[in-house]
Amino acid sequence: MNPTFPLDAFVFKTIPESLTAKKIENSELFDMIGEVVGKHDPRELVTNKGKESKRLVVVLQDLEKNMINSTLFGEMVDEILPHLEDGRLESLIVVIQYFKAIRWNGKTSVQSHFEISKLHINAELKEVVGFRNILLKEAPSNASRISQMSSQSGWSGVEEITNGSALVKTIEEALSSKEEGPIWVAGTIVAINCRNNDWYYKACRRCPKKVETLVGNRYECDKCGHTHGIASIRFEPVLVATSVEVMIFYGTGSIFLLLWDRETSQLCGKQAEKILEEDGGHEDEYLLP
What we know:
The protein is an alpha+beta fold. Helix content is 17%, strand content 34%.
């Protein structure tokens, strides 16, 4: 038995079927085949269970040039990243299995569903072979087959909601949700759980990893191996309490959220290094405003 061949038969849905469906069934899982023609930058996230994970959006295209965003989570991100090198000239054909469709503000995309979903990358399946054979009939091109899309880290909340890559939920819905994935929750910050000197940390200047102590007169990152004489200053993840009145007859709700460096910088309007610099660099005495 070929271990790469799925035990269950594929139930394929075409990209146009997903894009033009009158109603999206949240419980419906399906399969889809396509060529990866676009990629966004991967993002780190923390699940509602406190588990660190990853998220990556790729663009799938069928043989008729229809395209749809596909969001991958967790181990699938690690599986596909080595195949997304810059300047790739060969087609990257994937079969996404047991995925679900989401739609927000008229935009439809697909995403993996817990640990059920599977990702088959350039697998020797008859569906993939047939897809590739049709692609090979096209005129050859020296252009890269996978485009780098605009960085998601630069998206505004409005853009992320508009393109359908994240859902908007009430606090009650977020607390009761059993699904992993990015969501937006509207609310007002009413408290910040932060003490005098635990709102920042010293980080590698190449990646966000915390650096603890000097090696000689330089910092060394355990994650990427980069060494540097001066560490970057980043906001330590802090807990903030939010509450929001959803609607009068729905009542109110509250939730604790973990904010990372990017989000805290956006709220403060400046980087952690800038705050310390303006305070004269007195790290042990500074209070986060």
